[in-house]
Q: What sequence folds into this?
């Protein structure tokens, strides 16, 4: 996944967020907050916060880069967000973000958004952790986490394979749908700051 200078700041923060083992343990121990792996528009914190109806929290602190194996990205049309399909090749991978700390209501809102054409499946997500015991060094290790993800379970006939392991956000970020969500979020934040 790319980190371009013109990408939204909250997305760039999420890309750079690397959890420590302690923080991961804390997030995984939260009751009824199963992680979700996202690989399309929900990788963008602005969109995710809009969908889960939580404009106030800094969700980037609960997001980190991740990938899954045995899946491949496809699109319904050249301009559509991606879907993932399970493959028989364990070397096929999909890059995205894993989101921790979502409560039942927030996960249900994601289900309402993603459901319909896709089904919720269990996946094993690979993430990188930062070793907090060595403050002067940036040492990272890998970790596998169980998460839920929405996958396309219908035929892949007619779908367009994505040539990359990560969906390009560029076209979506330049579109009116994203801009309308970003404007809505700015209005909510301004309204909230005026009440203080």
A:
């Amino acid at each position: 996944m790319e980190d371009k200078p013109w990408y939204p700041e909250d997305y760039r923060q999420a890309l750079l967020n690397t959890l420590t083992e302690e923080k991961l343990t804390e997030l995984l121990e939260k009751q009824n907050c199963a992680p979700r792996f996202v690989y399309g528009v929900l990788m963008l914190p602005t969109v995710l916060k809009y969908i889960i109806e939580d404009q106030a929290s800094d969700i980037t602190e609960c997001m980190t880069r991740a990938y899954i194996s045995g899946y491949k990205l496809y699109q319904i049309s050249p301009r559509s967000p991606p879907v993932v399909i399970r493959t028989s090749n364990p070397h096929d991978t999909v890059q995205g973000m894993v989101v921790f700390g979502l409560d039942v209501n927030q996960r249900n809102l994601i289900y309402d958004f993603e459901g319909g054409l896709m089904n919720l499946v269990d996946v094993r997500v690979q993430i990188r952790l930062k070793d907090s015991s060595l403050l002067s060094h940036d040492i990272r290790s890998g970790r596998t986490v169980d998460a839920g993800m929405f996958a396309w379970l219908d035929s892949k006939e007619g779908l367009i394979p994505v040539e990359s392991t990560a969906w390009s956000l560029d076209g979506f970020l330049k579109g009116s749908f994203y801009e309308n969500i970003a404007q809505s979020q700015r209005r909510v934040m301004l309204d909230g700051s005026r009440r203080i």
